[in-house]
Write a structure and sequence with these properties.
Tumour Suppressor Smad4, binds adenosine-5'-triphosphate, alpha+beta, 2 domains, eleven-stranded antiparallel β-sheet, binds nicotinamide-adenine-dinucleotide, about 290 residues, Rossmann fold
Length: about 290
């Protein structure tokens, strides 16, 4: 399936949803800023109940927020944005990341830009990028559990003292066996996360590809691999391997016979400022090109 890289702008915005980084009460002034900037536009703000409870507001369920909102805001770091994109995947709502974290590679709007960006958004001065996501199928005792990933799925050794062995297949045909600390399957957006630390390539986030990068492979011949977006890759490993999705969900391979990874039919829709330039972000946040 062809996934386009940009999507149409929102036509009419009446309601916006908000989720905050957990356990951070310092976010209160920014929530007030978002609320009043939206009020000026005649737009209602729905705050998800866990975030609302943390800050003393009246909240709504996550599902109600997703159903009733025209777009969603994540107020926090990259992890909060990733969690929101994953949890709201089925609702196909655009997501705006407002940066209140440590690195903020994905969340490009700073807290001191909230008012100005919201004004610009209502003038149509923004873009929505479609970021490829992964659909992961875990095969357990004849049943299939499906999960989505925004950055990556990591198959990692579970014991510090042992290597893991991972067999990798394309369309059922074995194409490699990885021996070492594990393997990362990353989206282009996730290429600047764990994949980068493991020596994988930086891949422009609107590219469509599957990136496979071994972690500390015990071999002179294992290299990162970039595969076409329409490949379905599957993996088998032993009980000494764990699976980690976006650093947020963990499964033990003990109970899993096979893991299949493919591009999800829908991508995440990220709202960005028109000024955002990927290479500027690489330079500013990851010191790209610095000597
Ligand atoms: N050794 C490593 O580099 C390592 C180890 C474990 C997990 N991770 C990454 O952490 C990600 C989860 O992020 P988190 O913020 O929830 O966890 P986290 O709080 O543990 O932080 C991971 C760091 O990676 C940054 N990050 C996350 N996604 C990024 C992206 N697409 N591009 C550039 N930087 C990014 C975050 O801002 C944060 O500084 C996982 O998907 C995985 O890729 C990296
Ligand atoms: N809704 C959520 N559900 C579960 N975990 C979450 C959620 N939001 C954030 N987290 C986790 O909480 C941790 C901190 O959140 P977040 O990444 O947003 O802030 P940060 O670490 O300060 O910023 P950054 O990731 O930009 O450095 C991360 O490990 C993230 O995965």
């Amino acid at each position: 399936m062809k996934i386009t890289n940009h999507t149409h702008l929102l036509t009419q915005i009446k309601t916006v949803g908000l989720v905050c980084k957990p356990n951070d009460t310092t976010l209160m002034p920014y929530v007030e800023e978002i609320k009043s900037a939206l009020q000026l536009q005649g737009v209602a703000l729905l705050i998800e109940q866990t975030s609302a409870q943390m800050l003393g507001y009246k909240g709504v369920s996550f599902e109600q927020m997703c159903e009733e909102s025209d777009f969603l805001i994540s107020l926090g770091g990259d992890g909060s944005l990733i969690a929101l994109c994953r949890k709201s995947f089925a609702y196909h709502k655009p997501v705006l990341g407002i940066y209140a974290g440590q690195l903020g590679f994905l969340t490009d709007i700073q807290t001191d830009e909230i008012r100005q960006f919201i004004e610009e958004l209502f003038l149509g001065h923004y873009r929505i990028d479609i970021r490829m996501m992964l659909e992961i199928s875990l095969h357990v005792k004849g049943k299939i559990e499906k999960i989505v990933a925004f950055n990556d799925i990591v198959l990692s050794r579970s014991k510090i003292s042992h290597m893991s062995t991972i067999k990798a297949y394309v369309d059922g045909k074995l194409f490699n066996s990885y021996y070492g600390d594990g393997l990362i399957v990353s989206t282009p957006t996730g290429s600047t996360a764990y994949n980068l630390s493991a020596g994988g390539p930086v891949v422009y986030p609107l590219t469509e590809a599957l990136i496979l990068t071994p972690i500390c492979p015990h071999s002179l011949s294992q290299r990162p691999l970039v595969l076409p977006v329409d490949f379905e890759i599957s993996f088998e490993s032993d009980g000494d391997t764990v699976i980690v999705i976006d650093g947020q969900d963990t499964y033990n391979m003990n109970e899993i016979e096979r893991v299949c990874v493919r591009s999800a039919k829908e991508g995440a829709r990220l709202i960005h400022s028109l000024d955002r330039d990927y290479f500027d972000v690489l330079k500013k946040k990851l010191h790209w090109g610095h000597v």
